[in-house]
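Could you join me in thinking about how sequence relates to backbone shape in a protein? Would you write everything just below, so we can both look at the same thing?
***
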Amino acid sequence: MIKKALIKRTILSYWYKKMGHSGDYKELKQDPIIYSTLNKKYFTLKVRALFVFIFLLISSYFLLIKSELYESQTAVVIRDLTTSSPASSLGLSLLGMGSSSQLQDSMILQEYVQSLDMFLVLDKKFHLIKHYKSSDIDFIDRLGDDATMEKALEFYRKRVIVTYDDSSSIVHIAFLHTNPKKAQEILEFILTQVGEKINLLNKIKAEKQLGFILNEYKKNKQKMENSTAKLEAFQNKHELLDPTINATSSNTIISGLEQQLTQKKIEYKTKSSYLNRNNYELTALKAEIEELINSIAQKKGSLSGKGDSKLNSILFKYEKLKMQLDFDIEVYKNSLLQLENVKLQIMQNAKMLSIISKPHLPDGYTYPNKPKVFITIIIAMLLLYGIFSMLLAIIKDHKE
C-alpha cells in the first residue's frame, strides 16, 4: 500500500509540474480541481496499465510458454468387398450421401479410436499418461498428478481428431503430440489397431452367421431326408413307382372300353332291326355289351371308389408327399448355397480399411496458431477495454 501511494504521489507531482506549477504534492492537494483532474487521469492510466499487463501475460503464455503441438494426418475409407451394386452407391454419392453401411462403419471407427480401449492400448505402448503429466506439456495445460482415468481419457480425446466426410465417405484422422515423430508413430499404430478391430468384428459376425446357417442347413437336410423316407415308404406300401402313370393308363383303358361299348351298342341296334331277338348274334352282342359295361364300371371303381386303396386317393397322397419333398429339396438347396457363401466370406475379409493418405511426419507445429492467437488477443482486449470504459462512463454520469 505504501509503494502504491508513493507511486501515485510521484506521478501526480510529475504531471502537476508538467502543467507549469512549481509546487509539490501538498500544494497540489490544496487545489481540488487540478487534483481531481489528475486523479481521474491517474485512474485511467491504471486501467490501461492493467489491460496492458493482462495482454502481455496472455500473449506471453500463448507465444512463449504454451506447448507447441505437431499434427500428423491420415485419410482412410472402409470398403465393403461384398457390395455388388456400384450403381446404387454411385447414386447415393451423387446425392451427397454415403451408404448406410459405410456411415455405420465410419461411426464405429470414430467411436473406437476415441474409446477407452484404444487409449489404454496406446498408453501401454507409448506411455501417454506419463507424457501428459510431464514437463513436455506447459504447466497450465498439463494433466495433474492426481488426475483420474476419465480426465486422462478426456485429455487424449482432445489430441485425437476424427471427422467423417458425408459426400466421399472418407474418414480423416489426426493426432497431436509435442514430438512430430511420435505423432506419426502413434497415428500409424492407431491405423493398425483399427484394421485389426474391423477384421475381428467381421470374423465374429461371420462366425455367428455361419452358426445360424449351419443349424438351418442341418434342419433342412433332416426335413428332406424325412420327406424322402415317407415317399419311399408310400411307394413300397402300394407297390407303385408313380401313381400318375397308373391313373393315365387306367383312363386310357376306360376310354378304349367305352369306344368298344359304343360300337357294340350301334352294332346291336342295327342287327336287332332285322334279326330276331333270340338270334345267336344278338345274344352274343348283348353279352359282350354287358361284359364291357361291367369292365368299365370296375375300372372306374378302382379309380374313384371308396377306401384308401383307390387310385385317386393314392394319387392325391402321392402328390402331397411329392410336393412336400420337392419343397424340402428347394429349401435344402438354398440353405446349402447360403452355407457356401458364408464360408467364402469367412475366407476373405468382407470389409477392408483402405488408407488413402499415409500418416505424414509434420515439419512444423500446428497449434497454437501464434499470429492468429496474437491478433485475436489484441481484438479481445480492445473490446474488453472499450466495454469497461463505457461502464465507467455510465457510472460516472449516474454519480454526477
